[in-house]
From TrEMBL:
One matching Pfam family: YfhO
Source organism phylogeny: unclassified sequences, metagenomes, ecological metagenomes
Biased composition (Polar residues): 504-513
Species this protein is from: freshwater metagenome
Region described as Disordered: 483-519
Protein name: Unannotated protein
Length: 1278
């Protein structure tokens, strides 16, 4: 039983009405319809017209007559029409130099008639035979077109020429899609299209459909022997028709390139979102800048998700056109009528272009209505035709009334009808003088709704797996098997099908569509057969029995155990503690701080992290959960922070194959595929690094500890989300996994959220249900992670965006060219050794591509593709990447994690596919050569299995040996580095630590040991720079840059000038530790020298300073470093003069002094601090109204009291916090208050998980609730 079509043909009409229409379906009746239409237009033509357009037509006709074609265009003369219609105006100018309305509208009248006639002919040829027998198509369509208010409005009333190119487009479709096919017929059609394009460039929206028609006809469906001839004919048609368009401007002095430049400049005439068109951009506002092109003094460009409106619309239309053509191709291949399908596709692409492109005028919807005309016999398209016609007329009415009303009011041009019929006009459009009104936005919204509904419904219909009854045409060759998925029945030969159609009365063929219209090409048949054989020979892994028999039962888990054992052995050297030289230094410091907070009885969700980058509230700007959990486990197990950290790192890296295995199983892959993925997971290594490889975590690697937690969770999160969406249950666990992934590593969590549509929407079944499940799961996961996300987003404006990362691989990644080069050289999965994993992943990719009908294959390919596209980064996608929320804060190079995780799954799939081929080959060899001597039938069955298994094991070991050896050597090499560093720590480390402890004991300033950008990395203890030692010793330091990158002081610290004494003051850099041979350039005293290191002291006022506020600097989280550069380069801080910061649009604060003075504003009498608790206290004496600054990064969480009374904090240059004080002695206390709403956010997350758990049982819960309500309802009389 076939599926119902998208839109059924016209219903049965009453006999009387049918007889009336039949009387019109002969030459006299059709002539009568045309005559009436002409009379109506002649009556309207002299009285109405859009004065602005007709005035230009009249002037251009006169200028063409006066100056000729060659000299029509001039730099100082406005004429934005291409040459096509100017030929018509030149002819009219010869008849009358200043044509009147009637003469100007004569070509439009002819265009209306031609459009109606071509539409009626095309509709009659497209309609099924059953409909043609029942209804007279031609008169119905003629009346529907000629008397459509939209056609009358744009032509007879307005005076625009849209019906002329539209009639030519309809002629093109008529010639290309109906009648006997010939090169001459196709060439004639394309010549008409070239003429339409020369008149109205928006006719080009049809170009993709026409290109598809010709390429399919002359290349794809042409037998292989004639394909070269077909390609030559295609080139001939393209060259001839293209030349007609390209050289249409030559008589006007426009070469082909000149014509292109002319059109480009004309498109810039109105570089706006919408030029009165009710479409998507009308929702944003009319006549707003859509790009960098200047418009009407506007500076702000409309953007969507950070992408300029013009670019965004172009991308959406391009992707939509590709998707529609792909779906139409599939539908035609399945047997849908080519002509009907392609005309409907033309409607959808034209409508999408009108709705989503910027710079659209109100009339540009007309081609959509014109293309809908031939489909009027189908109810759904008929509804779209009249709905869009009504919206089109309303759209015409507004600018017609507005501009004609202005001309009429000027009194310079006589009577001009604006048709401003009140109060109707005001009801429909609001105030006529207002550019953006609610009513106009409402009409725009309705157009968007109609577009989305039409395109979405049509697209889904095209992808339906069964042939629609009405739209299907039997275009299959005799004996060819039905191409509809899941059938496989041979189609009867042509005579039998014809007889069957005659018997049922459902003959859908027309004279122009013979039964052999599109015979399948031999090459295509051969390719399909070969593809089927390959797909059969290489099945998609995952179809194993629930419990493999015999020893195979333990095979998959044995592979996982082998991978884990390898990691445990290779990495055991990582358990030895040494001073670290990578990000582990920073992570250990975070864990020590969290442990200290736990010791004080506080849960370290937030707090002041004091010792890096002048301090910051880093725990609620970062993925701090791993630090908290590590600290808690360390206290429970009574282990030191260092040992707990090393054990967790060791176990998580070594046992990660378990997560990979269960993630694969949850995504629907079989035991062997999942275990093979687990087996290769420890072997990943890449040139760019930072991925899921040992080098990202080990001593000699990068030490990205929080990513390790995200790495463990991502496979499980993908699997749990996939299962929840697929089965409609298990939402709470999936949402909790997503929330934990976000909380442990924000980049991994971000990727997991972006992958939700891939996991949920790549399905052919239950699409609506999958959309709801995906949305439900995404919302639940984000709500569960609200305790991380809400504080992060609340204080986003105070989270720095480093300018040092701008334009680097960290923010922009490497680009497609570099990354694809690495991919094809094997550098993303195998580093520099033999590309074994890359080959396995490539095999897995091919296997999944062969089985795209399987959901799990589509999902893993979708995850890999999405991750790869994200990994390309801003280098490839430019501003398009801004469509991603928070993209300005993303480190795009980290998306390698998704490429590698999906690649591991592909490698597992490829491994199983190759293993199956080996087993098949070994079994075949045994059956042919080795079975004769088998003693028993049991032996005959077991021996081939053993031989096959042995072959797989041997070949697998040989193939993976380069990867195993490379990883083993790398991990074991780290042992030697650790042992050497332990020796350095024992010999030279105590001296450096002793010097740092002196500074720690004094507690009155920060320590500088160079920065990562100058001599800091070369001043080492063994392999570890001393600037890392400051962190290891919990010293308040300056120079260990880009650790707490969210601090507003990040770039300021990186720009520290060690030769400027004033910067030591403003950052309270009181100590320098350096090699004894390196003497500071600023005044200093020697504190102590030990070994080869010396501790120097610099005079500062400490953490507090009483200053005058003079001037104000406007800055935000992006430019604060550049904005304060002049202040930092001066000596103002040494003179106790600091400017205020007007941050992110805040009002500048007034100066505290009105005239320059050399006397200090005050002094700090004494000061103390509890840095780890975020408490700083001082007693100061102010000589005049001034500001007491605390040299710590400004944060909205700072609270300050002056003499016990609460006061307001202020932001001072370069990025520090202060408080205003009056003259006198004061006690100042700064304290950091943690984010206060965590309990409510945890409650919200718990309620979200509870709701997700109850959602699948909502009907039962409702029943229980109703029963409970009845039980406790008071009874009458009591």
């Amino acid at each position: 039983m076939t599926a119902e079509p998208l839109s059924s043909p016209a219903r049965q009409t009453t006999p009387a009405l049918v007889r009336w229409w039949r009387r019109l379906d002969h030459p006299l009746g059709l002539t009568g319809i045309i005559v009436i239409a002409v009379v109506v237009r002649l009556l309207l033509a002299p009285h109405f017209g859009f004065y602005g357009d007709l005035r230009y037509f009249r002037e251009w006709a006169g200028r063409l007559q006066e100056r000729g074609l060659r000299h029509f265009y001039a730099p100082d003369y406005f004429a934005d029409y291409p040459p096509g219609y100017l030929y018509v105006l030149a002819f009219l100018g010869k008849i009358q130099q200043s044509p009147g309305y009637q003469l100007l509208k004569l070509p439009i009248l002819i265009g209306d008639l031609a459009l109606a006639w071509c539409t009626a002919l095309l509709a009659a040829r497209l309609a099924p035979e059953s409909v043609r027998r029942r209804l007279p198509i031609r008169p119905i369509v003629l009346v529907a077109v000629l008397f459509n208010p939209a056609v009358l409005g744009v032509g007879a009333v307005w005076g625009q020429v849209d019906s002329v190119p539209s009639s030519m487009v309809m002629g093109t479709l008529l010639l290309l899609l109906t009648g006997r096919r010939s090169v001459a017929r196709d060439l004639s059609g394309m010549v008409l299209f070239a003429g339409a394009l020369a008149i109205k460039p928006q006719a080009g929206f049809l170009a993709p459909v026409l290109a598809y028609i010709l390429i399919r006809r002359y290349v794809v469906d042409t037998p292989a022997a004639q394909r070269l001839v077909g390609a030559a004919r295609l080139v001939l048609i393209t060259v001839v028709s293209g030349s007609i368009w390209a050289f249409s401007g030559v008589p006007f002095g426009l070469s082909p390139s000149g014509l292109v430049n002319f059109l480009r400049n004309s498109a810039k005439t109105y570089p706006v979102t919408s030029a009165n068109a009710f479409n998507f951009w009308g929702l944003f506002g009319f006549f707003k800048r859509d790009s960098d092109n200047f418009w009407n003094g506007q500076f702000e460009v409309v953007k969507v998700f950070g992408v300029k409106a013009n670019t965004f619309g172009t991308i959406i239309v391009g992707l939509g056109a590709i998707a529609l053509l792909w779906a139409a191709h599939r539908a035609i291949t399945r047997g849908c009528n080519q002509a009907r399908t392609l005309i409907a596709t033309a409607v959808a692409t034209n409508l999408l272009a009108y709705t989503m492109l910027t710079r659209m005028h109100e009339r540009y919807m007309f081609p959509v209505i014109a293309c809908l005309g031939p489909l009027l016999m189908w109810r759904w398209f008929r509804a779209a035709y009249w709905t869009l016609s009504i919206l089109f007329v309303l759209n015409l009415w507004y600018p017609f009334a507005l501009y004609n009303g202005q001309w009429d009011a000027s009194g310079r041009v006589g009577r001009v009808y604006g048709l401003t019929i009140q109060p109707w006009f005001r009801w429909f459009f609001g105030n006529i003088d207002a550019v953006d009104t609610g009513q106009k936005k409402l009409w725009s919204f309705l157009v968007v709704v109609v577009t989305v509904a039409f395109v979405a419904m049509y697209y889904r219909w095209l992808l339906r797996p069964q042939l629609p009854r009405v739209w299907a045409t039997q275009m299959l060759a005799p004996g060819r098997f039905d191409s509809v998925p899941g059938r496989g029945r041979p189609v009867p030969p042509a005579p039998e099908r014809a007889a069957a159609r005659d018997a049922t009365g459902n003959n859908e063929q027309t004279a122009s569509e013979p039964d052999t219209e599109l015979p399948p090409a031999p090459l295509a048949r051969t390719a399909i057969a070969a593809l089927h054989r390959v797909r059969t020979a290489i099945p998609l892994p995952g179809a194993e029995k629930p419990a493999p028999s015999g020893w195979l039962r333990h095979g998959p888990r044995s592979l996982v155990a082998l991978a884990c054992t390898f990691g445990l052995l290779a990495l055991r050297g990582e358990l030895r503690s040494a001073r670290t030289l990578n990000d582990s230094t920073f992570h250990l410091q975070m864990i020590r701080w969290a442990s200290g907070q736990l010791e004080r009885g506080r849960l370290p969700l937030d707090g002041w992290f004091p010792d890096l980058t002048l301090g910051s509230s880093f725990f609620h700007h970062y993925q701090s959960l791993p630090y908290t959990v590590t600290a808690i486990l360390g206290r429970i197990l009574h282990m030191s922070v260092s040992n707990m950290y090393l054990w967790i790192l060791y176990l998580l890296v070594s046992l990660w194959p378990i997560s990979v295995y269960w993630g694969g199983r949850l995504m629907g892959w079989g035991r062997w595929a999942a275990s093979a993925a687990a087996l290769v997971s420890p072997l990943i290594v890449s040139i760019p690094s930072y991925g899921y490889e040992h080098g990202s975590y080990t001593f000699q690697g990068w030490g990205v500890y929080t990513q390790l937690w995200g790495m463990w969770l991502l496979p499980l999160t993908w699997g749990l989300m996939s299962r929840a969406i697929r089965l409609g249950r298990g939402y709470p666990l999936a949402a909790l996994a997503l929330a934990l992934t976000i909380a442990t590593h924000l980049m991994t969590g971000y990727l997991a959220v972006l992958c939700l549509p891939v996991l949920g929407l790549l399905t052919n079944k239950q699409f609506g249900a999958r959309v709801r499940r995906t949305a439900l799961l995404g919302a639940g996961g984000l709500l569960t992670a609200a305790w991380v996300l809400v504080p992060l987003l609340t204080d986003k404006k105070y989270s720095a965006q480093s300018t040092f990362y701008k334009g680097t691989l960290y923010n922009d990644s490497y680009g497609a060219k570099v990354i694809l080069g690495w991919l094809f050289r094997g550098s993303l999965y195998d580093g520099r050794h033999l590309p074994v994993i890359t080959i396995l992943a490539a095999v897995g990719f091919v296997v999944c591509a062969l089985h795209l009908g399987q959901e799990r294959a589509r999902i893993v390919l979708g995850l890999w593709t999405l991750s790869l596209l994200l990994y390309f980064g801003r280098v490839t996608w430019k501003s398009v990447i801004d469509v991603l929320p928070g993209s300005e804060d993303l480190q795009m190079h980290r998306f390698i994690i998704g490429v590698q995780m999906a690649g591991i799954l592909l490698a597992g799939i490829g491994t199983v596919a190759l293993a199956r081929l080996v087993v098949q080959g070994a079994t075949t060899v045994w059956d042919r050569y080795g079975s004769a001597g088998s003693p028993t039938p049991a032996a005959k069955n077991s021996i081939p299995s053993l031989v096959s298994a042995a072959a797989v094991v041997v070949l697998g070991a040989i193939a993976l040996s380069p990867s195993w050896r490379n990883t083993w050597d790398y991990d074991r090499g780290g042992w030697a580095f650790i042992d050497q560093q332990r020796d350095y720590d024992r010999i030279d480390g105590p001296e450096v630590s002793a010097l740092l402890q002196i500074a720690n004991n004094r507690g009155d300033g920060r320590v500088y040991a160079g920065t990562r950008g100058n001599w800091g990395p070369s001043y080492k203890v063994g392999f570890v720079p001393v600037l890392h030692y400051t962190s290891h010793n919990d010293t308040d330091g300056v120079g260990f840059t880009f650790r707490t990158v969210q601090s507003l002081t990040t770039d300021i610290e990186a720009s520290f000038d060690e030769n400027n004494l004033s910067q030591y003051e403003m950052l309270n850099v009181r100590y320098i530790i350096a090699p004894t041979s390196r003497v500071p350039a600023v005044p200093h005293t020697v504190v102590q020298t030990l070994g080869g290191s010396t501790l120097y002291a610099i005079e500062t006022t400490g953490y507090f300073q009483v200053v005058d506020r003079v001037g104000s600097i406007s800055a935000n989280r992006v430019d604060i470093n550049d904005a304060t550069a002049a202040f930092r380069g001066s000596d103002q801080a040494s003179r106790s003069v600091y400017p205020g910061i007007a941050f992110d649009g805040d009002k500048p604060l007034p100066d505290t002094v009105t005239a320059a003075t050399d006397s200090p504003p005050g002094t700090v009498i004494n000061q103390s601090n509890q840095r780890a608790d975020g408490i700083f206290e001082a007693t100061v004496s102010a000589q005049r109204r001034s500001v007491v600054v605390l040299k710590a990064t400004y944060d909205p969480g700072w609270r300050v009291t002056v003499d016990g009374e609460s006061a307001n904090t202020v932001m001072m240059a370069p990025s520090i916090v202060g408080v205003e004080v009056e003259p006198g002695q004061h006690t100042i206390r700064f304290s950091y208050r943690s984010y206060p709403h965590y309990p409510w956010l945890f409650l919200l997350g718990a309620l979200a998980l509870l709701s997700l758990g109850l959602w699948p049982r909502r009907e039962q819960v409702l029943v229980y609730a109703q029963r409970a309500a009845r039980r406790f309802r008071p009874r009458p009389g009591r």
